[in-house]
Amino acid sequence: MIEVLPETQGDMLAVRVSGELTNEDFDLYRELIRDRMRKYGAARLYYEMIHLDLNRVKPGAALENAFFDLVHGREYGRVAMVGEKVWQEWAAKLISPVKKKGVRYFDLHEREQAMQWVQEGKV
Q: Range of 7's domain?
């Protein structure tokens, strides 16, 4: 499931993902981020993961999303990934090289710092 957070504004997309991620969830994410890239030339992203289970992520949708990130990686501004599991931190490190400004990982208890970093570049 993907939830758009109220901090979403301008070129920044803030989302929380949890549980099962479907093709529709990934489609919504790509549409929202693509709209910001078109309108502003780049997009900042706050991506929070809670109770996310890899076994409940649709493989085809995840691969399509990875391809989207490869193609559009240079159109991302700051990206903060916030999570609660070691594999999430590894995922952030894995995708960081394809993003223009990289990806910074924060633990779930650091969510306020992550949001501030994406919004203002501080922390």
A: 2-120
CATH number at residue 6: 3.30.750
Residue 2, beta-bridge partner list:
17
State whether residue 2 is helix, strand or coil.
Answer: strand
Structurally, how many domains does the chain consist of? 1
What is the model's pTM?
0.82
* Tens of pLDDT, residues 26-64: 889 889 999 999 999 999 999 998 876 666 566 666 666
DSSP 9: B
What is the dihedral angle through the alpha carbons of 106, 52, 70, 113, rounded to the nearest 10 degrees?
A: -20
CA 40, CA 19: separation in Å to the nearest integer?
Answer: 31
